[in-house]
Design goal:
Elements lengths: L10 E8 L5 E8 L5 E7 L3 E3 L5 E3 L2 H11 L7 H16 L5 E3 H15 L1 H11 L5 H23 L1
Parallel strand pairs: 4-6
Antiparallel strand pairs: 1-2, 2-3, 4-5
This protein binds zinc ion.
GO molecular function, one term: DNA binding
InterPro entries: ATP-cone_dom, NrdR-like_N, RNR_NrdR-like
Pfam families: ATP-cone (PF03477), Zn_ribbon_NrdR (PF22811)
């Protein structure tokens, strides 16, 4: 990180704080050459460990492309997908881990996707939770129904 005033390469950190979204760290730095102060925003690293063992940097666009398939033909807008990916990233970063399994990312997607579109949720869940039979689908649908009925009951009171 070069000093924006004199281009010196060295600076020392005088203050660090996590940004509100939890995804980046705001650092107040002081140049060791000219003594002037400047602020940097640094994204904290978050790696996803794939089933193959390969790690890659977490990316919202990967979350979106994974979910988009499940949303085919559903009334889901690009904006909805962007918001969902943000929710997922914030939920994962809130755990404070530097690495996460790809499967965990998939599981983290389930809850906001369930809010977004129940059919897309069922499609996605069938892959990530490894639905193997009609009973698995029935159970998931039953749980969606119970939730819906619970909400309807709440509205009545
Ligand atoms: Zn400087």
């Amino acid at each position: 990180m070069h000093c924006p005033f004199c281009r010196n390469a060295d600076s020392r950190v005088v203050d660090s704080r996590t940004a509100e979204d939890g995804a980046s760290i705001r650092r107040r730095r002081q140049c060791t050459a000219c003594g002037r102060r400047f602020t940097t925003m640094e994204a904290t690293s978050l790696s996803v460990i794939k089933r193959s063992g390969v790690t890659e940097e977490f990316s919202r666009s990967k979350v979106i492309s994974g979910v988009r398939k499940a949303c085919q033909g559903r009334p889901v807008e690009e904006d909805d997908l962007a918001k969902l990916a943000q929710t997922v990233e914030e939920a994962i970063r809130a755990r404070g881990v530097a690495e996460i399994d790809a499967d965990e990312v998939g599981l983290t997607i389930l809850s906001p996707l369930r809010e977004l579109d129940q059919v897309a949720y069922l499609r996605f869940a069938s892959v990530y939770q490894g639905f193997e039979s009609l009973e698995d689908f029935e159970e998931a649908i039953e749980s969606l129904r119970a939730e819906r009925d619970g909400r309807a009951a709440e509205k009545e009171f």
